[in-house]
Amino acid sequence: MLPVDRxxxxxxxxxxxxxxSTIVSALLLSFACCEANALTPPLHFKDDTxxxxxxxxxxxxxxxxxxxxxxxxxxxxxxxRCFVLCRTTMQFKKFARFDPHAPPLNDxxxxxxxxxxxxxxxWRDTLPENQRVVFPGYANFRELSTKRGYVVQxxxxxxxxxxxxxxxxxxxxxxxxxxxxRTHEKLNSVLNRGDLFxxxxxxxxxxxxxHAVLVFAKKPGRSADLDHYCVYDPNxxxxxxxxxxxxxxxxxxxxxxxxxxxxNVRVYQLYGVWLQ
Length: 276
Prior knowledge:
Elements: H1 4-36, H2 45-48, E1 59-61, E2 64-66, H3 71-74, H4 82-95, E3 96-99, H5 107-118, E4 133-136, H6 141-147, H7 149-154, H8 170-173, H9 177-192, E5 197-202, E6 210-218, E7 226-232, E8 241-246, E9 251-254, E10 263-270
Parallel strand pairs: 3-4
Antiparallel strand pairs: 1-2, 5-6, 5-10, 6-7, 7-8, 8-9, 9-10
């Protein structure tokens, strides 16, 4: 049996080592969590969005849809992909990086790299730089999708599955202002933590708009009543659009354009969690 003073020293040494080990383990776990939950970098419209447009099925005049006729109806167009393009933009921002100084890939290898990105669920945590899928030969997603648009289009998914998403049922059963108020709060929460928000815009049962956009920033307040948001709209790759929230009306509104008459819309988040 150790003398009392020697026993105390031994016990003290054991406790010190255990405490030190616990602190080191906690620090390592903290660093690991920081790496696994890297922040999504701010989205820059001219660099991080798609370089080609989602073409509309119908022709529009002042926001009113008309059936295409003549040569316009015969053109091969990339349509019904607004959901797909928003999801893909989000995935590339979170899971891809670019190396403009390396030689570009051939079509087959590029297709495989694209699928490596789009197979990863959009709601998963942003990857740190050293774990991202690398795309050599291009400075950003805009350049890649502009110069190799055909390869991108063929490897990011079909449009028709979006019509059968289970979460679409919300547009029929969650139509009240209470749900929109909660969606507005969720939108602010997502943007405040540095993430991106894919929004399903609809006016069902009216068919003025059924469309997906990507909300990427909140504008500085210009009105006590309105919140203004910057939006990537797949129909408009030329520049950002605007979504607003009225505090007094507790409703969203989307800007007028050639493909929408403008005005109130309901908003539902997409790709925030599984099955959404």
